[in-house]
Amino acid sequence: MQLLEGGTIVDADGTLDADVLIDDGTIELVGDASDENVDSRIDVSGRFIAPGMIDTHVHLMMDGRPDAESVQGDSEAAMAFRAAENLRNAVRAGVTTTRDLGAAATLAIDARDAVADGQVLGPRVQAAGKNVVMTGGHGHWFGREADGPHEVRKAVREQLKAGADAIKCMATGGVLTTGAQTGAPELTPVELEALVETAEAAGVRTAAHCHGTQGIKNAVLAGIDSVEHGTFMDEEAAELMAERDTYWVPTVSALKGIVGNSDAGIPAQAVEKAKEAGDRMAAAWEYGLDAGVPIAMGTDAGTPFNYHEDAAHELAYMVEYGLDEAGALEAATVNAADLLGLDDTGMIEKGYRADLLVLPENPLEDVQAWQSPEQVYLAGEQVR
Prior knowledge:
This protein is of the alpha/beta class and about 375 residues long. It is built from eleven helices and 19 strands. The strands form five sheets. A six-stranded mixed β-sheet has the order 3-2-7-17-18-19, covered by helices on one side. It is globular and about 65 Å long.
């Protein structure tokens, strides 16, 4: 057993001065543990103990290069080595659980298993396998193309057979695919309904890449569990999401990475689309916050200049757009855990996984604190 002694706990319940006792990867006690017989005592006086961050939207095969489509020329082996490096970087930066929402072949599923088996250091992984996309749609070059409800059902079942933990689809076009119209609907309402129905029958959650307003509404009405991006969300879409408890994963980091590096080799068509989307993001946040849409953190890490180790920047962007520090903490912990269907992480309580960060400042007062963890514990093992 090991003891984190003298710190201040910060989670969705607020703050508490307490010790944290860890036994076999699990939190055994929260409170006064000064009399406990432990193997090691770690003094964290003056520091803040927070749950590890949960990044619900990443692409492990991507490395932040300016032209994401150039990954098409890489071998599966090259992408696997890259995924391993991304996983190491993410966990050392404080991401203790992550969800890959689209990779070639079975790369993300294999990465999940490699982490679980201890072959690769990284956060616990959920993997969606290949994205389900219309023929020629956004991300078609690493997705599973399908047209019509029957093909969509088969595509979903293929991902389930391969071991996918979630099903991801493209409900609209996107920024990084040449020729795709960012806001245009792609999968039809009937196709989206088939996707959700098939995944739900297997007890698997669903996510939809949605930029455009109509695509968001189509996905929500079909029963999707999370809207990824939601850039052109309007008031009606926000109210519909709130009514149906559909999570929003804004991935502000993706747009920031492109717009902030527009002269660094990113294809011109992607920059133009990202700037248009960025101009609408503030309105989406206004509608989302006013309606009370549930929000979970996701970065879209791997897209241009959006690195896996920079996940904490997403929380600062959320605060920049109007979410308070407590809301940002919830988005990265309890909300993200709820979206992923995890009941053993996201809080600092007895019986939870010891996925913990030791931060220099209180993240409820300074959101930047997430960016500089002094210690990171993954299921009780110190990895930083």
